[in-house]
Specification:
The protein is mainly beta and 168 residues long. It contains one helix and 14 strands, in the order ββββββββαββββββ. The strands form five sheets. It has a four-stranded mixed sheet with strand order 2-6-5-4, with no helix packed on it. Strands 7-9-10 form a three-stranded antiparallel sheet, with no helix packed on it.
Length: 168
C-alpha cells in the first residue's frame, strides 16, 4: 500500500468591508458635528472598528473629507471609505443702522446727502459677520433727500454671499 500526505492551510484572505452610517453631510458654521459612524464586517474577525482620519472644524466654512480605514488580524486592508462634510456659512452679517435724524431743508427740493449731518448719518452704519468679522456697508440713499421722511436701507454682504440689511 502506498501513501502520500498533503496539507490544507486555511488562511483569512478576505479584507473587511466598511459601511458608513449616513452619507455626505452639510452643516452650518457653529453647528455641532457628530460623526454618524461606520460599521465593519469581516468573514473571520468580529468587533472591528474603523479608524477615522481627518477632522471637521465647524468654525471655518470648507469641505472636509473624513477617511475610514481598518485591517483585519490577518493584515487584509479594507478599501478606504470617505465621507465629505460641508461646513457652510449661511448667516447674514448683522447690520446696525445709525439713529434716525431730522435735518432742516436747504430749499424746496430738500437737502443734499453731502451736508455734514446726513453724510455722518450715512457713514455711521456698521456691520459684523460671525465668520468674516466687520464688513463694509452700502446704502440706497438718494443724492438729495426730499421733504418728508426718507427710509434708507443699509446692506452688508459676507464672503459667502449672505446679505444683511437694516433701515433708518
Amino acid at each position: 500500500t502506498g501513501q502520500a500526505q498533503a496539507t490544507v492551510n486555511i488562511t483569512d484572505q478576505t479584507p473587511p468591508v466598511i459601511s458608513l452610517a449616513g452619507g455626505a453631510m452639510t452643516l452650518n458654521v457653529g453647528d455641532v458635528f457628530i460623526d454618524p459612524g461606520s460599521s465593519v464586517s469581516d468573514n473571520v474577525d468580529v468587533g472591528l472598528v474603523a479608524t477615522v482620519i481627518g477632522n471637521v472644524n465647524i468654525a471655518i466654512p470648507a469641505i472636509y473629507i473624513l477617511s475610514y480605514n481598518i485591517s483585519d488580524a490577518a493584515g487584509n486592508a479594507a478599501i478606504t471609505v470617505t465621507r465629505s462634510v460641508i461646513v457652510q456659512d449661511n448667516a447674514a452679517p448683522v447690520v446696525t443702522p445709525p439713529a434716525n435724524i431730522t435735518v432742516a431743508a436747504t430749499d424746496a427740493a430738500g437737502t443734499a446727502n453731502s451736508i455734514v449731518a446726513i453724510n455722518a448719518f450715512l457713514n455711521a452704519a456698521t456691520a459684523t459677520d460671525a465668520v468674516d468679522g466687520p464688513r463694509p456697508v452700502t446704502h440706497d440713499a438718494p443724492a438729495v433727500f426730499p421733504l418728508g421722511i426718507t427710509t434708507v436701507t443699509f446692506s452688508a454682504t459676507d464672503l459667502s454671499a449672505n446679505t444683511g440689511q437694516a433701515q433708518a
